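To illustrate the input format used throughout this study, we show a single complete record. The first block contains the structure-token representation of the backbone; no residue identities are included at this stage. The design step must infer an amino acid for every position from geometry alone.
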């Protein structure tokens, strides 16, 4: 009997999804009229510049914190963000 599903045996990466999340974060920040420094100073330890440039992976907890700061629910944040690149059929598996 297997204790874990096969997809749970190692951390999975989805660069397409990561890029969409980064783009969405930046879009919302700009819509709110905030600069990266505004967010960094208001939230302290979050380096939004490194997150928005993809230099630093974002955790779900950090994403939730940013959504709260931007007054956006996680549902609203993810609405319309595809999880797979429609131009890459091999990702459709």
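Output of the design step:
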């Amino acid at each position: 009997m297997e204790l874990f599903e096969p997809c749970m045996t190692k951390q999975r990466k989805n660069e397409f999804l990561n890029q969409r999340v980064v783009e969405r974060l930046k879009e919302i920040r700009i819509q709110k009229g905030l600069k990266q420094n505004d967010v960094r100073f208001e939230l302290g330890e979050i380096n939004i510049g490194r997150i928005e440039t993809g230099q630093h992976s974002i955790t779900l907890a950090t994403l939730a914190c940013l959504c709260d700061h931007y007054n956006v629910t996680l549902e609203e944040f993810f609405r319309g963000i595809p999880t797979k690149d429609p131009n890459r059929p091999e990702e459709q598996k």
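Structural context for interpreting the output: The chain has one domain: 13-80. The chain is about 50% helix and 0% strand.
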